Amino acid sequence: MRAKRKAVVLLSGGVDSATALALAIADGFEAYALSFRYGQRHALEIEAAREVATHLGAVDHAIQEIDLRLFGGSALTADIAVPKDRDMKEMAAEIPVTYVPARNTIFLAFALAWAEVLEADAIFIGVNALDYSGYPDCRSEYIAAFERLAALATKAGVEGKPVSIHTPLIDLTKAEILEIGAGLGVDYGLTLSCYDPTPEGRACGRCDSCRLRRKGFEGAGLSDPTVYADLVEVE
Fold first, then answer.
1. DSSP readout, 103-153?
2. Model-level pTM greater than 0.90?
3. Among 2-11, 46-55, 152-161, 167-176, which stretch is predicted with the lowest mean pLDDT?
4. Which residue segments constitute the domains of the chain, with CATH numbers given?
């Protein structure tokens, strides 16, 4: 019997990464989930990631400790206010302060190292460039560039077995992502998207991520299982 292909899946605990994990498994990969506790204010997402990895059947789930608070520069890793109550136009106007400098480059570098050790030929990352984002490290051009780097900078790549970077969600709306995940049996009640949750784990309901999540559930015609601390109408 032919061995299954292996994939490292970056798993934050949110909607997109949970869906990416489900897609990797549906595509026949043995999935090795990788999460990061990097000093983020919403570190509660790590527990969500644990639950998602178990729920979806990841072969292993590694949690890497790094501390990007050393550099700061983001509302997620420094004493900078998380934007609240913004409409979609405001979100799309500029790169938001919730952008963490070079985060996906750092995460993908760790994923690449683990993929080499596992002899995995794929990395899955749930980046999405279609909704508001504006994050420079969520674009297809960036992913293609990192894939070229991976082929040049690794033993596997030099030996003709490069790791491919899979971005199955990059051109999808949040509603489309949720529809796909629901069809694959993802329990979105386990996920956490909020950038500024309460200490008890309730989503704020007002940050960009909460508003996009709510808009996505509405667009998909699905019930949003999230417990919000506050609700402001989504525009």
1. HHHHHHHHHHHHHHHHT--EEE-----SSS---GGGSHHHHHHHHHHHHHH
2. yes
3. 2-11
4. 6-220 (3.40.50.620)
